[in-house]
Structure of Polysaccharide biosynthesis protein C-terminal domain-containing protein:
Amino acid sequence: MKIGFIVVLYKTPDSEIARLENEIISLRFKDFKIYFIDNTKNNHGYGEGVNKGIKKALIDKCGLLIVANPDISLKNLKAKDMLEAGKYFDLWGLSMKMHNRLYYGGEIDKIKLSGGLIEVKPRQRLVESDFVSGSLICLKKEVIDAIGYFDESYFMYYEDVDYCLRARQAGLRVGIDSKTSYSHFELSRNNPKKELLLSQAKEKFFNKYAKFWQKIYVFVVDRLLKPIRQAQGKRTQEGGKPQARFFVNFLSLNASSWLNKFLNFILFIFLVRYLKPNDYGIYALVWAQVSIFSSVVDLGTTSYGIVYLPSEKKEKFVSMFNLRLIIAIIIFFLTILAGFIMFKKNYRIVEYIFLTSFVIFSNMASGSYLIKNALQGSIYKSSIVSNVFNLILILFLSLSLLTFKSLPTLFILIFFFYNLYAYINYLLIKKDFKQFSFKIDLRSWKEFIRKSYIFVLIGFLAGLYFKIDIFLLQILKNNTDVGIYSAGYKFFEATLIFAASYNITRTPIFAKLAKKNFNLLVATLKKDLLFLTILGLAASLAIFWLSPLLLPYFLQGNYLPAIKVLRIVVFALPLILISSVFLNAMYVLKKAHLIVLIFLFQVLLNFLLNLIFIPSYSYTASAYITILSEIFNVVLLSVGFYFIGRNYENIS
């Protein structure tokens, strides 16, 4: 039987080619031929090179094909050593010596479908294996007849895993000879693109063979939770059991977020059921006014505290708390003053803004409690307190709507409960910090502000961008139009949980990739863009078609026009999801200043368009302007990221 050796070359030195050729000759096969396939000038991938060699070998009537990398050594082997396993297998390999270790074939993870080499030596000489290393594969002509050639869609890596899996699926026998070994130098180990190519090949293999449940499992557990768990684990090593603590904290925090959004949505249903559009418009205006400076109140210190303080002294927490308190007091009076200026002709709204502005202190205290718990690795405590508070708050607010159906009662309850919540969080903080006194610490405050001011500016501009249409509707139209628009927009906001969840889980991954490999970051971005675009479009179309059928059960009477608002603005969802991908990438690439410029432009554009079209088209104009603004957002962010990528390419 004629043997065909197929060796794919890429920039391989002549000395290495000569060395391998001599080693193949030394095997002393009676009838053989070597096919060197040089991919240096025209490289379309390893699989294509192998297939070229196989086709040439088959033309020459080769009955056994041996595919080999040029960076292996067959020294001290003989022909009989390589052929022994052929008595039992259709496709086989030998044990591989690499990096001073021996590997005995490979196995495919049953869930993630990732290929891994086996280090445990088998008890028997000849054993079955999920796959054999592509650095040396022996296969009979019958294998080609049964399953064809290598899959050329793999540029490099995983073509061996794929081919072996196809062989096993066809009922062919795949295994290794554990007694006989060869050496693999793996010259590609120093290739800077190896990790990117390996990641792309692994992704292709997974998408080709994974079942639906495997895709869901890997997306949630491996791609979303794993990077965050690793980051949390680094911070909690001293406390022991970092993985268990991570899951408790992460799941409780996310469950709390989802529960709070659900409870607030229930409250919204009560609001539109028992309040007239005019009253609901006032309610929406008050909250828009109070929340407009929320990012300034936080000053980015919640994120700063969670990220930095666990590795710093606890004394800094007290300094941060004092800074947050001072800013909260300033913003409290600024919010009331701004409310008075905007609504001085309607003192009822000014009174409601005053009562609701105490939420500023509540947010300051609860955010500080969250930071404190992050210091101690017990974020779940904040989740518990938040959930209990929101359950009680929503219950009482809903009962007041059922009983009184009046705004004054609603805002008095808001005033009472949020002040109570602030005081409870303060007591919980003070319990763990016995020496808790006010002290001016300008040096620490300057450090906090220096690290967070850019994010404060982004948060403020983003908040203004999303609320400016409500203010202009009230000024140019009336509270009723504000109520109808806000009701439709509230249903749309419920879909933004996708963007919020994506931002929380994906940012740590992007940060890691940005430091490691820019090309790998870009590849991940492309996959995310495709996935989120499909998800966003599917959700938008579903809501567009189903909302006229379902929403009349929730929106009745004068609120029915809000359905039209939702059916328009919902098509901003895929655009917002796409923007989230670019925004996260720019954050981790330290290009936040570009985001500031983009949001500043968007605020001005949104203001001008609403100012021009609201007088004629009211909330319908605002709905369409939302979509138009998000289109501009996607264009600006994608162009910005394109030029960032160009700079990275020039640097590399």
